[in-house]
Design a protein that fits this description.
This protein is of the alpha/beta class. About 35% of the residues lie in helices and about 10% in strands. It is globular. Keywords: Glycoprotein, Glycosyltransferase, Membrane, Transferase, Transmembrane, Transmembrane helix.
Length: about 375
Amino acid sequence: MFPSSSSPIVYGLTLFLPLFLLFIFAPQILPLRYNRQPSLISPQDELDDLRLFNEAVSKATATSRGGSPKTSHLGTINPKPKIAFLFLTNSDLVFAPLWQRFFESPSNDDLFNVYIHVDPSTKISTPEWFIKANFIPAKTTARASPTLISAARRLLANAIIDDPFNLYFALVSQHCIPLHSFKFIYTSLLGNPSSASKAFLTQRSHTSYIEILSEARYLYKRYVARGYGVMLPEVPFEKFRVGSQFFVLAKRHALLVLKDNRLWRKFKLPCLYSDSCFPEEHYFPTLLSMVDPKGSSHYTLMRVNWTDSVNGHPHTYHSPEISPELIHTLRKSSTSSYSYFFARKFSPDCLKPLMEMTKDVVFRD
């Protein structure tokens, strides 16, 4: 029998235990009822995308086995590998004139394609002359939701179906600009165009350029954004990665993305905590890290300034900040010898000063 002096301790523990259990389990119970975000991906959207992805994988497989590649929308087949530029946007492409100048050169005509996914609610006034622009069938997108993953996968699939010689896929946004000439970027990825050949399409050694981070102070918070234990067993915490939303993927990895359904089942789930949920920054790094950890560079070719981010948005450059010195600074990496190819985020008023510097600065490597 306990002495009477222990009774207050027992009573105290009895009162404390329910509070302790509430603290542990409340985040799993209450948010499910009050905070879970609605899903923006309908069953019909899922079915449409699945058909599209299967078609892309099927065509790519037929080509790799020696089948005759389908003629692209250009009407000709060129055996040289190409870079597919994938624009993901929910507003007007204000930097289309800059990209037009980046692409325009008779020698570049057969070395790239452009695909654009525009949110259906957005009105685009992009000039019709935006070079080789191919607007793909698009669906609704929203920030911090899996719809951005779907849109990126949609762009990859359409590019693979359209032209079997698209070998690299560069995902950019309406706020991105190129930091080098097209020739510099193409040569860096694929070598001299004059020596490029059809053999590039069957090589399995091409590297993808995507940021993949296994250590970050917010990593666990993002991992449990859908609820505690929800990502298991497919994605244990030690396999979860974060990284950049924008990337340059080799074709072999683009196909891995389109074939995946196992991880997608987890990443498409609505979040409980919207301030920690950025699926587009988690899905691609996690998938590639798990499936082919040595096949990616683990760094991005997109320069982003996070020093004064606001609500998850990086620093936005404005016209007074544009200068030759800025372009040269944005190209340089502080952690590696490689050069950044692209940069974000730029406001529309930056277009004029950037256009004035294209010949002598931006596209002068």
